[in-house]
Amino acid sequence: MKTFRSLCITFFSLTILLAVAHAAGQPGKAKEKVLFSFSASGDIGNSPNGTLISDGAGNLYGVNTYGGSGSGAVYELSPTAEGGWTAKSIYVFPTSVYFPGQLVMDSSGNLYGTIYGGGPDTCTDGYGNYPCGSVDEMSPDGTGGWSDKTRSHFGQTR
């Protein structure tokens, strides 16, 4: 009797395992949808860099390497009622700085990121001098706009 029960459990387990393996092996119907296409010019910039982050309202935030003033921008993509997306520039980088990618967001909705080539200190790499970089905070201003504040800057010895 014990052997029969073991045989039934083994058969049942193998049946479930085969069913799951078969289901997992089926080709999915993954669909890709373009949410927004960046243009070659304008204050939103182009050449997205890093990954997108989102807020609780469904807005997406990211960084472009080029565009704006020539050095890139932080942008916000917002869903529309019609199912599309709108884009706006939150912050346009001054010329000669570079925002390498990833943003983080705190619980108040402020965005933080590091900027290469910004800040007041000068660094050298043996080939030339350049601004050392900074940590910037972008905060909603309550009127739909954003403000930017340097929270910390890097120096040659830091």
Structure description:
15% of the residues lie in helices and 37% in strands. The chain contains one helix and ten strands, in the order αββββββββββ. The strands form three sheets. It has a four-stranded antiparallel sheet, with no helix packed on it. Strands 5-6-9-10 form a four-stranded antiparallel sheet, with no helix packed on it. Strands 7-8 form a two-stranded antiparallel ribbon. A hairpin with a 5-residue loop joins β1 and β2. The mean pLDDT is 78.
What's the short version?
By secondary structure, this protein is mostly beta strands. Helices cover about 15% and strands about 35% of the residues.
Helix content: 10-25%
Please count the beta strands (DSSP E, at least 2 residues each). 10
Low-pLDDT stretches are none
* N- and C-termini, Cα separation: 75 Å
Q: Could you tell me the strand content as a percent range?
A: 35-45%
Element pattern in H and E: HEEEEEEEEEE
Shape: elongated
- Biggest beta sheet summary: 4 strands, antiparallel
What gyration radius follows from the Cα positions, in whole Å?
25 Å
Features:
158 residues; 4-stranded antiparallel beta sheet; mainly beta
Question: Can you lay out the helices and strands and say which pair or pack?
Answer:
Blueprint lengths: L1 H23 L21 E9 L5 E7 L6 E7 L5 E8 L11 E2 L5 E5 L6 E3 L4 E3 L2 E7 L5 E8 L5
Antiparallel strand pairs: 1-2, 2-3, 3-4, 5-6, 6-9, 7-8, 9-10
